[in-house]
Write a structure and sequence with these properties.
The protein is mainly beta. It has two helices and 17 strands.
Length: about 190
């Protein structure tokens, strides 16, 4: 058991049998009445986000999730299979559990982190920065060098990000998948 004083971003709580991650919290002490804590919670499995308010000092059930390295293997219909690199066990996860924002950057043999609860991988987190090859982009036009000029580029996984004009097809780039943002070209 923990109290609202122990809240921190990334902490996992069990509420009504579901696991929720704290993505934001704020302690509020109004001039009148008792103090309280505003939180934004994200469901670990479904990705739903809810706002919830707790009285200051209220007890909550915190859960420790273990992180384990897993490798993406293949897709079969709506299931994505990951291999636990410690036990070599195949772990099937549904499309909804992984989330559309992560799937657009997922490629075969990618190293990820599996979130483990009760000896079972319940969710997967991709690395924040991924290196992918550009498969489609328009050529940069000479003289089109306005400061910060960008163009869309389609990556090997199907994701589309804005890149500088000098990036060409076949280049490998590093992308921050959380913000869908180009970072740099990767040299071989």
């Amino acid at each position: 058991m923990a109290s609202t004083a122990d809240f921190r971003n990334g902490m996992v709580l069990e509420i009504d049998g579901d696991l929720w991650t704290i993505t934001y919290f704020q302690h509020v002490k109004p001039g009148k009445g008792g103090a309280f804590v505003r939180t934004k919670l994200k469901n670990v499995l479904s990705g739903n986000v809810v706002d919830r308010t707790y009285r200051a000092g209220e007890k909550v059930t915190d859960v420790r999730l273990e992180r384990r390295p897993v490798t993406y293997s293949y897709t079969d219909g709506d299931l994505y299979y990951f291999m636990d690199t410690n036990t070599y066990e195949q772990i099937p996860l549904a499309h909804d559990v992984i989330g559309e924002d992560q799937l657009k950057y997922l490629k075969e043999n990618m190293e990820c982190e599996g979130l483990v609860h009760d000896e079972r991988v319940i969710a997967v987190e991709l690395p924040n920065f991924v290196e992918l090859e550009v498969t489609e982009t328009e050529p940069g036009v000479r003289g089109d060098t306005a400061a910060g000029a960008t163009k869309p580029a389609k990556l090997e996984t199907g994701a589309v990000v804005q890149v500088p004009l000098f990036v060409e097809e076949g280049d490998v780039i590093r992308v921050d998948r959380r913000e869908d943002k180009y970072l740099t070209r990767v040299t071989a």
